[in-house]
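Below is a filled-in request sheet from our internal design queue. Each sheet records the structural input a requester submitted and the sequence that came back. We keep these sheets so that new team members can see what a complete request looks like end to end.

REQUESTER: design group, bay 2
PRIORITY: normal
MODE: inverse folding
CHAIN LENGTH: 114
BACKBONE (tokenized):
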């Protein structure tokens, strides 16, 4: 299928699909005319990518864990180092949330002083 059809069927813009391909997340063949050609498996790949993005993972991390993801709302085949990668991402997310809580508290303190 061409990129326009994949976009229509997944609800993901062609621009995002090209970005996924550039990031090594999505593979496309090329027709004789040079157009991108996707197989039916691209539908599931896009669903997995979108679910992992919603989970807050970066495209770099998604590239590492995507081979272990299965299903549209990915479950995982716990391949080597996957738990370590995801545990690290969760810890980093917790640190960012704590930093935001501290910043919020400081800002709220400024507002109550005024």
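RETURNED SEQUENCE:
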């Amino acid at each position: 299928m061409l990129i326009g059809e994949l976009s229509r069927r997944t609800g993901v813009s062609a621009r995002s699909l090209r970005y996924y391909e550039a990031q090594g997340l999505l593979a496309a063949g090329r027709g004789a005319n040079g157009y991108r050609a996707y197989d039916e498996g691209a539908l599931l790949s896009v669903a997995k990518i979108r679910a992992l993005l919603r989970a807050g993972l970066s495209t770099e991390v998604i590239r590492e864990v995507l081979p272990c993801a299965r299903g549209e709302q990915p479950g995982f085949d716990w391949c080597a180092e996957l738990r370590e990668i995801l545990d690290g991402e969760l810890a980093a997310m917790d640190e960012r949330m704590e930093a935001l809580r501290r910043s919020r508290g400081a800002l709220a303190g400024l507002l109550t002083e005024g």
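SHEET NOTES:
- The helical segments are 3-10, 14-22, 41-54, 59-65, 82-113.
- Residues 52 and 113 are 41 Å apart (CA to CA).
FILED BY: M.R.
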